[in-house]
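Because showing beats explaining, we let one protein speak, sequence and backbone structure tokens together, and leave readers to judge.
___
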Amino acid sequence: MSQSLTPTRYTISEVEARTGLTQHTLRWYERIGLMPQVDRSHSGQRRFTDQDLDWLGFVGKLRATGMSVADMVRYAELVRAGGHTVEERRALLEQTRREVRARLSELTDALAVLDYKIDTYTRDTGTGKVRT
């Protein structure tokens, strides 16, 4: 099997369809430095690569953690700065992991309360008891 020496390039519309991110958001990510500089065609149209799509997927995971945009941009800057920033990147991700674990604990507690109340209402159905 032969592999193409030319990487696949995607238009902003194709990236929008693949990622669910709007074109406005993609342009904004680039403008604030969250995306590396995207290559352009001879006519000036953005041409995203598979590597760009992978990065956007990672950014989506960071967003899901609740990481602030400022911290995501900081992380992107550190990546672009090179290997000497690995420790700072790791520290940023470890802090985010601590925050995610704390939120998971809070949500687990909240879920337990919901389960308890639902079970209580299920048991009390038809008894006429009113509960909060």
About this structure: The mean pLDDT is 92. The chain has five helices and two strands. Residues 86-124 form the longest helix (39 residues).
